[in-house]
TrEMBL record:
<dbReference type="InterPro" id="IPR015655">
    <property type="entry name" value="PP2C"/>
</dbReference>
<dbReference type="InterPro" id="IPR036457">
    <property type="entry name" value="PPM-type-like_dom_sf"/>
</dbReference>
<comment type="similarity">
    <text>Belongs to the PP2C family.</text>
</comment>
<keyword id="KW-0904">Protein phosphatase</keyword>
<dbReference type="InterPro" id="IPR000222">
    <property type="entry name" value="PP2C_BS"/>
</dbReference>
<keyword id="KW-0378">Hydrolase</keyword>
<feature type="domain" description="PPM-type phosphatase">
    <location>
        <begin position="94"/>
        <end position="385"/>
    </location>
</feature>
<dbReference type="Pfam" id="PF00481">
    <property type="entry name" value="PP2C"/>
</dbReference>
<keyword id="KW-0464">Manganese</keyword>
<keyword id="KW-0479">Metal-binding</keyword>
<dbReference type="GO" id="GO:0004722">
    <property type="term" value="F:protein serine/threonine phosphatase activity"/>
</dbReference>
<protein>
    <recommendedName>
        <fullName>protein-serine/threonine phosphatase</fullName>
        <ecNumber>3.1.3.16</ecNumber>
    </recommendedName>
</protein>
<dbReference type="GO" id="GO:0007165">
    <property type="term" value="P:signal transduction"/>
</dbReference>
<keyword id="KW-0472">Membrane</keyword>
<dbReference type="InterPro" id="IPR001932">
    <property type="entry name" value="PPM-type_phosphatase-like_dom"/>
</dbReference>
<keyword id="KW-0460">Magnesium</keyword>
<dbReference type="GO" id="GO:0016020">
    <property type="term" value="C:membrane"/>
</dbReference>
Length: 458
């Protein structure tokens, strides 16, 4: 399949020409594709704090990490407000996300993508789709071009697969494969023009279709599920580290090795385990053309972009999902992260504002990872379903269905009470607003009003 020109008109100019100035990071991780979308987002209530950093003075930044003044700060260095939203889509009640370049690096190669309501392609407008949402965290390396590409396009490759949304697993596999081929072709075109494009990116994605959740992971970013008010912590993804995939790598003709060094006190220290070809500390990525193309000394069987996918049903016991780049998990375990979120929830539960609470929790976890001396970019995204201290006080009603029509409804002396017992359940993937049904009797149960709001941030 030739995808050479698929995104040429849309992305190729900014995508490749910006590579030379990647250290300046003129493109922000949360840049909106359409400025109008920004009006739909709320921001963290914490006031932005001015901060001046010495970008190239690593020792100064390490010292600032240890200073008590930093530990007392209410905001992060290089702080940008957390993006959060109180808009709902089916079982998703709220979300919040933030990314920070950290204390050592003067650039941020992490990216975030959120599409709260996926819009059907015009060619399939007559189909009845369940409610679908997409969330992605992309941890770039060697430049931000690959992470930018995934943020802007990976969801489109998945959604435009003919099997979506009825066979999400196949749609994810084929969409990821096409995205990988397309970016590598673009990188090849860049090399042919004398502009080396060496960047790559990890990706962890959550796709929610109705009440089903699909988690796809390529690399060492991570997805975690909190259940039963944080009493259980479930890893939804497996870190793709060279030491954990050593058998596959060696069988394919690659090597796994560990770097050695000496610290400032003259003591020997072990560096990260890496894979060759590529010299990467992660065994699955998008991009990284020099690790994959034989003409550059690569091997396509070693560093791969094949996702591992986990599928489960979202139930009442599920609280929220956390997505994070490896900068978070370099210093915190999965349980540390979930406990950190719940600790912040307990402190702020009197606000009874779920988006604000999730926003504060995101910032608390990011700050904690930096206090623990994470030296990478750090990114965290929370997708909230139902948090016990904030369970909404709203009337829950049953969905009108064919089964309901077969059941004789008891007579009631209060017609209004009877009416409330029949209407909508927003957790149903084919939910339709009963008020619209009342206003227009010609509308059938499966005839959607086009009320999907398209949202995308990166």
């Amino acid at each position: 399949m030739n995808n050479k020109g698929t995104f040429k008109n849309r992305d190729i100019n900014t995508f490749l020409t910006n590579y030379q100035s990647l250290d300046k990071q003129t493109k922000k991780p949360f840049e909106y594709l359409n400025l109008a979308y920004s009006k739909q987002f709320d921001f963290s209530p914490i006031k932005k704090q001015s901060y001046s950093s010495k970008a190239n003075d690593t020792q100064t930044q390490y010292k600032s990490l240890q200073e008590a003044s930093f530990l007392r700060q209410s905001t992060l260095p290089n702080y940008e407000p957390t993006r959060c939203s109180s808009l709902k889509n089916g079982i998703i009640k709220a979300y919040a996300a933030n990314t920070n370049q950290g204390l050592v690096r003067d650039y941020n190669e992490d990216r975030v993508s959120i599409i709260l309501n996926i819009i059907k392609p015009q060619s399939r407008e007559n189909e009845q789709w369940p409610k679908c949402s997409y969330f992605g965290v992309y941890d770039g390396h060697g430049g931000s071009a690959c992470a930018d590409f995934l943020r802007d396009n990976l969801h489109q490759f998945v959604v435009k697969e003919p099997e979506f949304p009825w066979n999400p697993i196949n749609a994810i596999k084929k969409g990821f494969e096409t995205a990988e081929k397309c970016f590598l072709q673009m990188a090849q075109d860049s090399f042919n023009k004398g502009i080396p494009e060496r960047s790559g990116s990890c990706a962890v994605v959550v796709l929610i279709v109705g009440d089903s959740c699909y988690v796809a992971n390529v690399g060492d970013s991570r997805a975690i599920l909190s259940t039963e008010n944080g009493r259980k912590v479930i890893d939804l993804s497996k870190d793709h580290k060279p030491e954990l995939e050593k058998e596959r790598i060696i069988k394919g003709g690659g090597q796994v090795y560990q770097t050695h060094g000496v610290n400032e006190d003259g003591q020997p220290v072990l560096g990260p385990v890496r894979v060759n070809p590529g010299r990467l500390s992660v065994s699955r990525t998008f991009g990284d053309i020099e690790a994959k193309f034989e003409k550059f000394g690569g091997n396509p069987k070693i560093v791969i972009a094949e996702p591992e996918i986990k599928h489960f049903k979202i139930v009442n016991q599920h609280d929220f999902i956390v997505l994070g780049s490896d900068g978070i998990f370099d210093t915190m375990s999965s349980k540390d992260v979930i406990n950190g979120v719940w600790k912040d929830i307990q402190v702020n539960q009197n606000t009874k504002d779920l988006p604000q609470m999730m926003s504060n929790a995101v910032e608390s976890v990011i700050k904690e990872s930096l206090i623990r001396k994470s030296t990478d970019n750090v990114t965290l995204l929370i997708i909230a379903f139902s948090v016990t201290p904030l369970r909404e006080e709203e009337i829950r009603v049953k969905t009108i269905s064919y089964i309901d029509k077969l059941v004789k409804i008891p007579q009631s002396s209060n017609p209004s009470n009877l009416r409330l017992s029949k209407f909508n359940d927003e957790n149903n993937p084919f939910f339709m607003n009963a008020q619209k049904l009342k206003q227009n009797p010609k509308l059938t149960k499966f005839n959607f009003e086009d009320n999907l709001r398209y949202r995308l941030i990166g």
